[in-house]
Amino acid sequence: MAKVVVCVAWPYSNSPIHLGHVAGSLLPPDIFAKYHRLKGDEVLMVSGSDQHGTPVTVKAEKENVSPEEIAEKYHNINSKAIKDLHIDFSLFTKTHTQNHFEVVHDVFLRLLDNGYLYKKETLQYHCPRCQRFLPDRYVEGRCKNCGNERARGDQCDSCGTTFSAGEIEAARCTLCGSSPELKDTEHYFLRLSAFQERLLDYVRDKSYWKANVQTFTRNWLEAGLADRAITRDMTWGVNVPLPGWEDKVIYVWFEAVIGYLSASIEWAKRSGDRDAWIPFWTDPEVRHYYFLGKDNIPFHTIIWPAILMGYGGLNLPYDVPANEFLTFKGEKFSKSRGVGIDIPSLLQDYDSDIIRYYLATEMPENRDAEFSWEEFEVKINNELVATLGNYYHRVLSFTHRNFGNVPEFKSTEENRREVTDAIRTAMGQVDEHLSTCQFKKALKSVMDLAQFGNRYFDSVAPWALVKNDRDKCGSVLNLNLEVVKSLAVLSYPFIPRSAEDVWRLLGYEASILDKGWGWIMTPISAGQILQESRPLFSRVVIGKGDQMFSDFEKLSLKIGTIQSVSDHPNADKLLVMDVDIGRRIRLVAGLKGHYLSDELIGKKIVVVTNLQPAKLRGVESQGMLLAAEHGGKVMLLTPAADVLAGESVDCGMKPSEKVLTFPEFQKLSMLVGRMASQDSVDIGRIVRSKGPCAAAGPGKTVAVFLPSAEACDALVLCTKNGVPITVDGDIESGAPIR
RNA sequence: AGCGGGGUGGGGUAGCCAGGAUAUCCCGUCGGGCUCAUAACCCGGAGAUCGGUCGUUCAAAUCGACCCCCCGCUACCA
Length: 738
Prior knowledge:
By secondary structure, this protein is of the alpha+beta class. It folds into four domains: 183 residues, HUPs (Rossmann fold, 3-Layer(aba) Sandwich), CATH 3.40.50.620; 109 residues, Methionyl-trna Synthetase, domain 2 (Beta Complex), CATH 2.170.220.10; 149 residues, Isoleucyl-tRNA Synthetase, Domain 1, CATH 1.10.730; 191 residues, CATH 2.40.50.140. Helices cover 37% and strands 21% of the residues. The strands form nine sheets. A five-stranded antiparallel beta sheet has the order 20-19-18-21-24. The longest helix has 30 residues. It is flat, with a radius of gyration of 32 Å. The mean pLDDT is 83. The structure holds one RNA strand.
């Protein structure tokens, strides 16, 4: 019996976990841990909520509650979601505990004693209005190198220049907008440079790491390691255990990774044996696996190993099987940007096994993977329900109805071999793939066995045998039950709920874990009473917004009147204008060179009002005006008749006020069309015209919405009162609008 | 434009790092079988010169060079 340590990246405690977390860092370790438990290994699997850091305090201020309340709220929500997904940690704790503080202090002081920490004075931005020191990501300013207005405090994303504090020009606090001042402050630094050689040594024999992890780590090491500050001027976090440092805390990146150790220690205390963690962390034979997303790689392959080396005597990570990202509609799941599907609400609609199965088949093991509801529906209904669920159900219900218990096997060993060979093969494949963290392949091998089962069941046709050869029928059912039993064990790491259910239907009383991996090949006892079968999974039906132009409702378009125009202070092509859309908003648009300021004032235009505001070279644009573009010409869209500012351009539909991100907006296609007849429009090709203004009059130029590139119906844009939208000049049919 | 990830039968994918003989699986499609089972299961067919060109090699989806296209992040795209 071996010991295994499974460490899981700590989800940040300022929002609910989403599908990206589960597919990327939570589900793989759980599958891995369940597999090891089945094999009888002793697994220590720990993680928790990362509760400290500036984002928590900022969110707390916004909601006008204490940081503790935010940190606790999401810790509770996420702990429950993890439990409901049947992800079984030895301990899922949090960083705001006395135990964690003590362990962090111990590590800090030990590193200090060993000479790996040192004090250094630095300059740091301090915001007088917010009364706090500002982390680099909360400072923006002009890059002295390329002039980019939105350079961050430590780096310009535009040209890549890095700065030390004070080097960016016209700095401002991104929280309140005021100008921060520079103050002297003293911090502890981790002497990362001292570990360069030892880390290179450590990485040298890790040829079994995933390619992306190896590449990333080597690149970091080759670039040379810089010492990093490990304290911050803040109050929310783990205090520095030294006199005179009361107004500083230990930086989250240093403190949170220590959670793996502190959680192990806390687990031991709770288990009643305070020292139970020690063999897991000091016996060099015990392998430590760290599961995380690709953005977390250097912290676990460089910084955490360096801390462990500096502390001494503890095991280093054995493998770090980092995953890529799960994307949704082409974008990365991200809680800060609101892209994503959170687990607590998903669990209200779907069984945990269904979520686990889908995510296990779409795991971003080697490349980004895309989540889609259509794919979800297809995979669940055609694979999980139709292949595995149906096989379970047809075997169990047929046997239960005709025999009531496990029938005796009375046939020849040769007949048995066909089935046991298939089981043995599947077992070998699953074993090999799971032990090397290839989860998608392992699941495929499980499903192959289910398919074998269906094929076998068909080939022996028990429904025919039952009528004239009851002994033979019993024998083949016995073998089918062997396959069902094996499937229950083999699928348990992936879909534990249904596996346990099948186990009970088979008449076992103890759980699968009590029996373990060995029971795959242990024959099922004849005479064992079967429970009455019921389907193990239900089909899912995803509601589809199948109205042809439903995507148009994502857009909130309004008529606006341009009231004033000025040049953008920092851009050649951009104009800044104030526009009345019933209220007054500011737009930034690249119209310079196409329109003169004087022509624009008073003009009626069409504005997207629910677009996420964005800063364009330092000036915020609160919407976007629509214009047609072709061959270097840019023409504004405008109503065909005079319309009041603020009137909705909705074609009689109900537009959503939900904020639209720019990428989402870009997926929507609008074009210039010329009316070809009463019910058709030329957009470079002829399509049917639809909507209240479908018959705008032959020859008229109109703006149309096209639901997809190949669509043969186009929606003619018009206002609530039926005034069509046209173009402010002559432009090619089919010209794109943006 | 910079950085990153891709282009494999109608759609979605595996294989690519460690080159090898009929290129995987799911859906769809066509035909057949079965009727125990959640319109589920099983068998068979059609359909891809693996983005393009050139090269390395006895042998390239797989290695190298150049080009084209798509997506994401970033950006004087709004």
